[in-house]
Structures are given as structure tokens and as C-alpha cells.
């Protein structure tokens, strides 16, 4: 056996300096003791879970006015008439509730007056009718609030979602490729849009509870100013219990969420189609099920713990609230005995205090919800604002529909967070009717250079010019329209076969039939489409009834057809045939490199299969962000440089015994 070459030896990891001990006989699949959630990294979409439980009452109350103003502004922008209706009707509803309490006191005054019972009841009838009228009016007003809310809430969601998707779909490519940006956008999409819809109703309920509490306080102050301290004495213990109960729920939800994420790891493995064969081959299902069962038991224990704690907290709150209520009623009795209050006013005070306790409990519950959910909405709005700053440039100058020459001059580009440049002083010229190949090792800068050519990245130094005009002076979207990109892993649009081709021109519903047929034939996609149930109209997704799923090679043909259909002056092919069979690959390269649909098109081919670039007019060899060789296949083979070495190595793999012979010859020449 021949010894490995130096290049091959470089890929072999060096021996470790420290010896590895034997593994233990048993090992847990996950945390066994303590809190199993400690081992879970916080998910990007859970960063605000439990935030309300960590905030003080002062923090929550201090932030509510700003949150209310924010939701009000969004509602006003979405539907002014419905927003105004909701505000006016909500205020009027609170007034009806207060007037109803006052009218109820009037009923009690008649019922507790001197005289025969029938006379007292008859005297109370007008007040009873008044109470009924206030209650009916309040019901109508609350219905009007609900109708207005039903009108404005979907509009807020629609406006936010449309703007969010429009902005994030158009930001520059380097923003999309940033991991932090990815997390922020998906968090805003998953949680921000969801809670933006919910928070409107929560703010309405919060306002209703607050206005109800204010109305109760107003009624008590009318009955007797000394009743206001009694209201505080009665409601504060209930409020404290509600705060503790809400915090316990928020804390427990975060723990429960982490446990569920851990359980889903096992659920996903058990249900995943890609893991199914190996699980059955290894008979690992029972082991996964055992771990799943252990964790679900922990979740059940967590649910029990929450329920017990919540019950104890509520019991304590009711006990303290009962003491406060007892003191309140004792004070009321003393006021009645001392003659400070008539009996009817005392009874009305009891009704008002009970109403106040209910309003305060609702106020606390919704305040916590609004506080936490507003954090998600803030995320959404922050992503939208950041997206506006990351949109591609707009300009009056448009990219030409035809280009004679593209000049790349001393281009430098370094990815964010990297020290080594991906492109380090790259210069070359592309001419219409020419086919140019980019070759080199992984990470040499080929694909980065293609993205710079496509206008997806902007050079940090240097320039890219179309017929003498720097692309940075052109409208970015117009440049994108004049570049067709065919990638190794193309997008598999869940639309019709024809829509998958016409998508390159920005439409899913309109096509030029002859142009589409020519592109499909050139890419070899015509045979794929002809075999589909309804051919061009067949939906290429199993998510739809009658939809079809294509193989990787078939999708590649559709992607090539999509690129050819665009008929752009610059065609970029980045490993487009990696998943095709040899005859299909040969047919595509015949169409692209020899029988192109447009002879004035510049074609750039990126490939590791060097046999496919032999017929290109020029081959640019990249290494460490630089172009180290340039020329035709014959010229580069004659120089015996990097390209010749790579081509010879690949070619030797197709000749039995040639690799060993080449290695032996190399060894003999040393």
C-alpha cells in the first residue's frame, strides 16, 4: 500500500496528547437530579417568558401607560372610527356601572325606609327600572366595544404582519445570514405577531377593570369619604394574593415550557421519518420511550406542584382578605351605629366594595399579561425598525437590460465576525457571450464572489461596474432583476410546476408559453413536467391534494429551467447539477455552455466537477480569497499549476489503478 501524500496527511487529525479513559458502565440520558430545566439552553423564542413574574408591581404599573399608548396608536392607525368607538363606549360603560351602583343605593333607600313593605317596594320601582336601564345600557355599550375591538384587532394584525414580512423579505442578504438576526426575526414572527393580536383585547379588559375600580371609588366617595380607606383595606389583601398567584403561574409556565422542549426532543426522534430506519435497526425505541416517560412524570409533578402552590396562595390571600373584609364590615357597622351612614348607604357600600375587589383582581391579572405580552410586541416593532435600516439601496439609476462588460476591480469582502477576508483584492472582467468558470477549494471565495456579482453583497473595498457604471449607483432591486441565480440547493416552491419556473421573473400566475417551454427543454425539465398528472399545473408539494414530490435531481432541472427562463444578462450557476444523474448533467451543460438561449448572456459556472468546466472560455482559480490562476483549460493544464493538479486528481479517479500509479509516480519523483 502506498503512503498517503502530504495533502492527504494534512486532513488526518493528529493523535491526542492525553489518553482517553474507558467510558462509565452507565450514563444518564439527561439530568437525573435537581432541576432538569437547568440543562436546557434558553430558546430564542422564550426570552420574555416569565418576565412579568420577575417585575415588581411598580415596574408593571409604570410601564402600563406607555403600553396602552402604543396599542392605542396601532389601533388608531389601523381603524380610527372603531378605535374611537371602543374608547368612548368603554368610558360610557364604566359610567353606566357607576350610575348603576348609585341607583342601587336609591333602591335600597326605598326598601329600608319606614312604612308598609308593599309601599316601599312600589316606591323603589322607578329606581329599579333605572338600575335595569343602566345595566341594559352597559350591556349595549360593552357589545359595541366588542364589535369595535373585533373590527380593529384583525386590522392591526394584518397591518403589522404585512409590514413585517415586506420589510424582512427585502433586507440585505448579510442581515438574513446573521444568526442573531435570524433569531430576532423568528421570535417576532412566532410570538410578536401572535401577541399583537391578543394584546388589544387584554388592554381593553385592563382599561375596563381600571375604570371599574375608579368608578367604585367614586361611588364610595359620594356615599361617604371615610369609605375609601375601607375599600383599600378590603381590596389590597385580595390584590396581594392575586399578584403572588399570577407570578407563580408565570414562573411555572417558564419551567413547564423548558420541560416540554426537552420532551419534544424525544417525541421528534420517535416520529422523525429520517430517524425511523436507524431507530428500528438499533431497537432504540424503548430507550427513548423510557426517557420520555421519565420526563413526562416530572412534568406531571410540576403541574401538581403548581396546583398545590396556587391553592395555598389563594387560600392565604382569601384568609387575609377575609380578615380585611371582616374589619371593613366591622367599621361599616360602627359607622351605621354612630349614625354616620344610613342603612341604605351601608348596603350600597358593601356592593361597591365587592365590585371593587373583583375589578382589582382583574386589573392585576391583565396587567401582568399586558406587561409580558407587550415585550413581544416591542420585539416585533424593533425588528421592523431595524429592517428599515437594512433595506437595499434605492436609486434613480436602473441596471441595463443588456450588458456588454462587467468589471470587478480590487474587490475585498469580509463576513461579519470573521477576521480572514473571503475576497482579498479580486479583479477580472466578464464579457457578453462568454462563459467563465470559478473553481477552487471550499472556502476559497468562489460563491462569495458570485454573490457580489449578483448584487447580494456589496464590496467593502473595490468596485463592480456594469458597462462602466458602479452597481452601487444603481437601484439594488433592478440589479437583482438582471441576474439569474441557479443554486445547488434551490428553493422548492409549493406551487405549480409552471409557477416554479416563472417565479424567477417575479410572478407565479403569468407565463410566456414558448419561453417557458424553451427553458424547460434546455434544462431537461420538460420530461419531468410531462410525467406529472396535470403537467404544468401540477402542484409540487404533498401538502396539497394531488400534489407531487420530486426527487433532488428533478428539482435541480426545474431550478435550471427557472434560471434560464429569466433570460437575464448575467447567469450564475453554483453547482446546479450536483444532484443530477450523468446524462441529465451532460444535457444541462450542453444547453448552458454550448447552446445557450441568449448568445449575449454572460454565464458564470461554479463547480467542483472540473470536467464540466473544460469547455468554458475562461477558468478563474480561487484560493484564500484571491484569483491565483486564469485561462482556458488547455492553458491552465499547460502551466501545471493548482488547476492542473486538481483536474489530474479528479480525472485519475475515473481510471482503475490510476490513482495508485499517480501517487507512486509522485513518490518516485521526490
Automatic annotation (TrEMBL):
Parts of the chain that traverse the membrane: 83-108, 128-148, 194-220, 226-246, 327-353
Quote the SUPFAM superfamilies the UniProt record gives. ABC transporter transmembrane region (SSF90123), P-loop containing nucleoside triphosphate hydrolases (SSF52540)
The principal localisation class reads membrane
GO-annotated molecular function? ATP binding
Q: Name one Pfam family in it.
A: ABC_tran
Which keywords has UniProt assigned to this entry? ATP-binding, Membrane, Nucleotide-binding, Transmembrane, Transmembrane helix
Residue ranges with Low complexity bias: 1-20
Q: What's the name of the protein?
A: ABC transporter ATP-binding protein
Q: Which organism is it from?
A: Streptomyces werraensis
Amino acid at each position: 500500500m502506498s503512503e498517503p501524500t502530504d495533502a492527504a496527511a494534512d486532513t488526518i487529525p493528529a493523535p491526542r496528547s492525553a489518553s482517553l479513559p474507558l467510558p462509565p458502565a452507565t450514563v444518564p440520558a439527561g439530568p437525573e437530579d435537581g432541576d432538569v430545566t437547568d440543562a436546557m439552553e434558553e430558546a430564542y423564542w422564550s426570552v420574555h417568558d416569565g418576565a412579568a413574574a420577575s417585575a415588581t408591581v411598580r415596574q408593571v404599573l409604570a410601564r402600563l401607560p406607555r403600553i396602552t399608548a402604543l396599542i392605542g396608536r396601532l389601533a388608531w392607525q389601523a381603524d380610527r372610527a372603531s378605535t374611537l368607538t371602543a374608547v368612548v363606549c368603554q368610558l360610557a360603560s364604566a359610567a353606566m356601572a357607576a350610575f348603576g351602583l348609585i341607583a342601587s343605593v336609591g333602591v335600597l333607600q326605598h326598601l329600608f325606609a319606614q312604612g308598609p313593605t308593599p309601599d316601599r317596594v312600589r316606591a323603589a320601582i322607578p329606581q329599579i327600572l333605572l338600575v335595569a336601564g343602566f345595566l341594559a345600557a352597559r350591556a349595549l355599550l360593552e357589545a359595541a366595544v366588542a364589535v369595535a375591538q373585533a373590527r380593529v384587532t384583525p386590522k392591526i394584525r394584518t397591518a403589522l404582519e404585512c409590514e413585517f414580512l415586506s420589510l424582512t423579505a427585502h433586507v440585505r442578504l448579510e442581515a438574513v445570514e446573521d444568526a442573531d438576526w435570524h433569531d430576532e426575526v423568528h421570535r417576532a414572527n412566532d410570538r410578536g405577531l401572535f401577541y399583537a393580536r391578543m394584546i388589544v383585547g387584554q388592554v381593553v379588559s385592563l382599561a375596563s377593570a381600571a375604570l371599574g375600580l375608579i368608578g367604585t371609588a367614586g361611588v364610595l366617595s359620594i356615599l361617604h369619604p371615610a369609605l375609601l380607606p375601607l375599600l383599600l383595606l378590603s381590596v389590597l389583601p385580595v390584590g396581594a394574593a392575586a399578584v403572588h398567584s399570577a407570578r407563580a403561574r408565570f414562573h411555572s409556565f417558564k419551567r413547564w415550557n423548558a420541560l416540554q422542549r426537552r420532551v419534544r426532543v424525544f417525541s421528534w426522534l420517535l416520529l422523525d421519518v429520517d430517524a425511523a430506519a436507524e431507530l428500528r435497526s438499533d431497537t432504540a425505541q424503548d430507550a427513548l420511550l423510557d426517557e420520555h416517560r421519565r420526563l413526562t412524570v416530572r412534568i406531571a409533578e410540576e403541574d401538581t406542584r403548581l396546583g398545590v402552590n396556587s391553592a395555598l396562595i389563594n387560600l392565604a390571600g382569601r384568609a387575609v382578605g377575609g380578615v380585611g373584609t371582616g374589619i371593613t364590615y366591622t367599621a361599616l357597622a360602627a359607622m351605621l351605629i354612630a349614625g354616620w351612614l344610613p342603612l341604605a348607604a351601608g348596603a350600597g357600600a358593601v356592593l361597591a366594595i365587592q365590585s371593587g375587589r373583583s375589578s382589582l383582581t382583574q386589573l392585576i391579572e391583565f396587567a401582568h399579561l399586558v406587561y409580558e405580552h407587550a415585550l413581544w410586541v416591542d420585539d416585533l416593532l424593533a425588528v421592523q425598525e431595524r429592517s428599515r435600516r437594512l433595506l437595499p439601496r434605492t436609486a434613480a439609476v436602473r441596471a441595463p437590460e443588456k450588458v456588454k462588460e462587467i468589471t470587478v476591480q480590487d474587490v475585498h469582502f469580509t463576513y461579519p465576525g470573521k477576521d480572514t477576508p473571503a475576497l482579498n483584492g479580486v479583479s477580472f472582467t466578464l464579457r457578453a457571450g462568454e462563459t467563465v468558470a470559478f473553481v477552487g477549494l471550499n472556502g476559497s471565495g468562489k460563491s462569495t464572489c458570485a454573490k457580489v456579482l449578483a448584487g447580494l453583497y456589496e464590496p467593502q473595498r473595490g468596485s463592480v461596474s456594469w458597462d462602466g457604471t458602479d452597481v452601487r449607483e444603481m437601484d439594488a432591486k433592478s440589479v437583482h432583476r438582471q441576474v439569474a441565480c441557479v443554486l445547488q440547493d434551490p428553493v422548492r416552491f409549493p406551487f405549480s410546476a409552471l409557477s416554479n419556473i416563472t417565479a424567477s421573473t417575479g410572478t407565479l400566475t403569468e407565463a410566456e408559453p414558448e419561453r417557458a417551454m424553451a427553458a424547460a427543454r434546455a434544462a431537461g425539465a420538460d420530461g419531468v413536467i410531462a410525467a406529472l398528472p396535470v403537467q404544468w399545473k401540477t402542484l409540487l408539494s404533498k401538502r396539497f391534494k394531488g400534489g407531487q414530490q420530486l426527487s433532488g435531481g428533478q428539482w435541480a432541472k426545474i431550478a435550471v429551467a427557472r434560471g434560464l427562463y429569466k433570460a437575464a444578462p448575467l447567469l450564475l450557476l453554483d453547482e446546479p447539477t450536483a444532484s443530477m444523474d450523468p446524462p441529465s448533467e451532460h444535457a444541462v451543460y450542453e444547453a448552458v455552455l454550448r447552446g445557450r438561449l441568449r448568445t449575449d448572456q454572460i454565464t458564470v459556472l461554479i463547480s467542483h466537477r472540473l470536467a464540466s468546466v473544460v469547455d468554458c472560455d475562461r477558468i478563474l482559480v480561487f484560493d484564500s480569497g484571491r484569483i491565483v490562476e486564469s485561462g482556458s483549460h488547455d492553458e491552465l493544464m499547460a502551466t501545471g499549476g493548482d488547476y492542473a493538479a486538481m483536474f489530474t486528481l479528479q480525472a485519475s479517479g475515473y481510471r482503475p489503478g490510476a490513482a495508485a500509479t499517480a501517487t507512486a509516480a509522485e513518490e518516485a519523483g521526490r
